[in-house]
C-alpha cells in the first residue's frame, strides 16, 4: 500500500502541560489529531470547571481547530453543584489519580472506596460522567495495575451505569476484567504495545522509556498489542504522551513520562502494517472512541500518510532545555502527506 487515509484521529489520553511547554508541544498533536482527552495533572491540577474552562481557552487560542476534551481531576472536595456545573459545560470526564501514584498526583484520591468518594461517584453516575482511572496501587511496581483490578470489579458492580476507563492498560491480567464487565473500557499507548522492561533496562537504563505504569513483560506487550491490532471494540488509542524537560528526566528523581506525540500516526501505521492490520487502524485511532465516549465535533480532519521515510528528531528545544521524543533519531517508513 502506498498511502493510508485516516479520518478524525483522536488521542484519548494526552498531557499538554502549560506555559512554554504547552506552546512547544501542542502543534505535534494538532497537526495530526482532530482532538484529544487532555489530562488535568498540571502543577495546579484542573480540579473544577473554572480551571477547566480557562485551560480549554488557553489551548483553543493556540489551536482553534483542535478539540480538547477536558477532564476534571477528581478530589474529595467535589460537590454535587461542581459536578452539575462541569456537565453543563460539556466536561464529562473525571480523572482519578490515586494519591502519590504519578506526576502531580499529590492531590489525588487517598481512599477510592471511602464513603465520600462513593457519594461523589453515585452523583457522577447519575449525571452521565465517564470515570478515567490511573489504575495503580502503591505495591510492587510490576503488580500495581494487577493489584488495582479489584477496585475496578467493585466500582463496576456498585456503579453499573458509570463508564469506567482503565487508562494506559499495561498488564495482560487486566484483559479479563475488560471482557468481564460491561461498563469497563480501556486506552492503550504506543509504548505499552511495543516495548517491555528490557527496553527500559536491558541494555542500560534508558530514562526516556521510564513511564507509569512501568513497561512490563514481553507477554504483556504482546497480548496488549493484540487488543490494538484487532481493534477490540472497548479499547481506544490514548498515547499518554507526557513531555518532561531533559534536565528533569536526568535528575536523580527522574520524572515518569514518554513524549510520543510527534510521530504517533506514522508509528502506528508502521506497526499495523507489520501485523497486516491496517484495516483496523481507523477503529483503533478514532471509531471506537467516538462510540465509547459518545463524541461529536463541529469539524472533521482527514490525514493522509504516504510511504516515504521520515526521521524522528533527536530533540525539541524548549525553555533553554530540550524534550526528547520517543525513538529520537529513528527512521519511520510512513510520513504525513502535507500536500
Ligand atoms: O508516565 C507517566 N507520566 N504516567 C502518568 O501517569 C503521568 C505522566 C506525566 O504526567 O508525566
Ligand atoms: Zn497520563
Name the features.
single chain, alpha/beta, TIM Barrel, eight-stranded parallel sheet, three-stranded antiparallel sheet, 13 strands, binds (4S)-2,6-dioxohexahydropyrimidine-4-carboxylic acid, binds zinc ion
Helical segment count: 12
CATH C-level class is: Alpha Beta
Average pLDDT reading: 96
Low-confidence stretches: none
Largest sheet: 8 strands, parallel
For the largest beta sheet, what order do the strands appear in spatially? 2-3-4-5-6-7-8-9
Total strands: the figure is 13
**How many structural domains does the protein architecture include?**
1
Helical fraction: 25-40%
Compute the CA-based radius of gyration. 19 Å
Q: What would CATH call the homologous superfamily? A: Metal-dependent hydrolases
CATH topology: TIM Barrel
Q: Could you give the order of the helices and strands?
A: EEHEHEHEHEHEHEHHHEHHHEEEE
Q: What percentage of amino acids are in beta strands?
A: 15-25%
Cα separation of the termini: 18 Å
Structural class by helix and strand composition: alpha/beta
Shape: globular
Structural commentary:
The protein is an alpha/beta fold. It has a single domain, classed as TIM Barrel, CATH 3.20.20. It is built from 12 helices and 13 strands. It has helices at 19-30, 49-62, 80-88, 115-127, 144-158, 175-180, 190-194, 197-201, 218-229, 246-249, 264-274, 281-292, and strands at residues 3-7, 10-14, 35-38, 67-73, 93-96, 130-133, 163-166, 184-188, 235-237, 302-311, 316-318, 321-323, 331-336. It has an 8-stranded parallel beta sheet with strand order 2-3-4-5-6-7-8-9. Helix 3 runs parallel beside helix 4. The longest helix is centred in the middle third of the chain and has 15 residues, at 144-158. The radius of gyration is 19 Å and the shape is globular. The mean pLDDT is 96. The chain binds (4S)-2,6-dioxohexahydropyrimidine-4-carboxylic acid and zinc ion (ZN). (4S)-2,6-dioxohexahydropyrimidine-4-carboxylic acid (DOR) binds at residues 15, 41, 102-103, 134, 211-212, 240, 242, 256-257.
Amino acid at each position: 500500500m502506498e498511502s493510508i487515509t485516516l479520518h478524525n484521529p483522536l488521542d484519548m489520553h494526552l498531557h499538554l502541560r502549560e506555559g512554554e511547554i504547552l506552546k512547544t508541544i501542542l502543534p505535534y498533536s494538532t497537526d495530526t489529531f482532530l482532538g484529544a482527552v487532555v489530562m488535568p495533572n498540571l502543577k495546579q491540577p484542573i480540579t473544577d470547571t473554572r480551571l477547566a474552562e480557562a485551560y480549554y481557552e488557553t489551548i483553543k487560542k493556540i489551536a482553534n481547530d483542535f478539540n480538547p476534551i477536558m477532564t476534571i481531576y477528581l478530589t474529595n472536595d467535589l460537590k454535587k453543584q461542581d459536578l452539575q456545573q462541569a456537565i453543563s459545560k460539556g466536561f464529562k470526564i473525571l480523572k482519578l489519580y490515586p494519591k502519590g501514584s504519578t506526576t502531580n498526583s499529590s492531590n489525588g484520591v487517598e481512599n477510592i472506596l471511602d464513603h465520600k468518594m462513593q457519594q461523589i461517584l453515585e452523583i457522577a453516575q447519575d449525571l452521565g460522567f465517564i470515570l478515567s482511572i490511573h489504575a495503580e496501587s502503591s505495591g510492587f511496581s510490576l503488580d500495581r495495575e494487577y493489584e488495582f483490578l479489584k477496585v475496578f470489579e467493585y466500582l463496576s458492580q456498585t456503579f453499573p451505569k458509570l463508564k469506567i476507563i482503565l487508562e494506559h492498560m499495561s498488564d495482560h491480567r487486566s484483559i479479563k476484567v475488560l471482557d468481564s464487565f460491561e461498563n469497563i473500557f480501556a486506552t492503550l499507548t504506543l509504548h505499552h504495545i511495543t516495548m517491555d522492561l528490557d527496553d527500559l533496562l536491558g541494555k542500560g537504563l534508558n530514562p526516556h522509556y521510564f513511564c507509569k505504569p512501568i513497561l512490563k513483560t514481553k507477554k504483556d506487550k504482546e497480548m496488549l498489542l493484540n487488543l490494538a491490532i484487532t481493534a477490540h471494540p472497548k479499547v481506544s488509542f490514548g498515547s499518554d504522551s507526557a513531555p518532561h524537560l531533559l534536565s528533569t528526566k536526568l535528575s536523580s528523581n527522574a520524572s515518569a513520562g514518554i513524549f510520543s506525540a510527534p510521530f504517533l500516526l506514522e508509528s502506528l501505521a508502521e506497526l499495523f502494517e507489520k501485523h497486516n492490520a491496517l484495516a483496523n487502524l481507523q477503529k483503533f485511532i478514532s471509531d471506537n472512541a467516538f462510540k465509547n465516549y459518545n463524541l461529536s465535533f463541529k469539524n472533521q480532519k482527514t490525514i493522509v500518510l504516504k510511504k516515504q521515510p521520515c526521521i524522528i528528531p533527536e530533540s525539541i528545544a524548549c525553555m533553554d532545555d530540550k524534550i526528547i521524543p520517543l525513538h529520537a533519531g529513528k527512521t519511520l517508513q510512513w510520513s504525513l502527506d502535507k500536500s
